[in-house]
Design goal:
There is one protein chain. The chain is α/β, with parallel strands linked by helices. It has one domain: Response regulator (Rossmann fold). It contains twelve helices and seven strands. Helix 6 runs antiparallel to helix 11 and helix 9 crosses helix 10. It is globular. This is LuxR family transcriptional regulator. Keywords: DNA-binding, Phosphoprotein.
Amino acid sequence: MRVLIVDDHELFRAGLALLLTELFPNIELLHASTLSQGVNHALCEHLNIVFLDLDLPDGNGCNALAELKESRPSLPVIVISADERVETISRCIQLRAMGYVPKSSPPGALRAAISAVLAGGVFLPASSIASLGRDMDTDKAPANGPEDRQPRVKSETSNASEMGLTPREFETLVWLVRGLPSKAIALRMGLEDITVRKYISHLLAHFNLRRRTELIVMLADRGIKLGVPPVTDPALDRSLPPAGGHPTH
């Protein structure tokens, strides 16, 4: 597994690297202290996932995430930040982040969060899930109810039949959660864009949701894991349409 850490604080990068190495002894870590270094790594390296801080010396908050996803649309990005405002978390989800881990998390919670995201799960702060559901004006409250309850944790990876999905719908869900827009998913799956959009509509109807951001919140709330993100090739990303800023598909 190859992971890129983009954070300007050397001490935090070292601590996160130590935690990641404890969890995954064979992990290969790359470091960047600025957004430009991070983007350069992303454009050249085969990677599974990126941990991205928002407060970078050459990046303006969510613009850093937008730039990274523009450069590597298929590369999953987990924001790890000291900013715990619900509006910031919501914006990052809209910009196709796969999850959000607060830096204030105690070591045990941070360890659980990192283990979840590296197994293909979505992690959001437990205290923000209910608020995110309300802000997104979903038809029903998150399954966990009160804000102070922790998201559920599943040890196993989910599959298509377990979730009541066809294999193609499940594959679409996996790519959607990792941050690809519909046109890029279509290229990955060798399908027409209109076909992928139909799959996305089926997924949203299946979960009684309206857009991708609600899917992310639902998956985080239920602790669903979709499998370890595969190594992504920057050369393939260069052939994909840009991720853009369209939060629905």
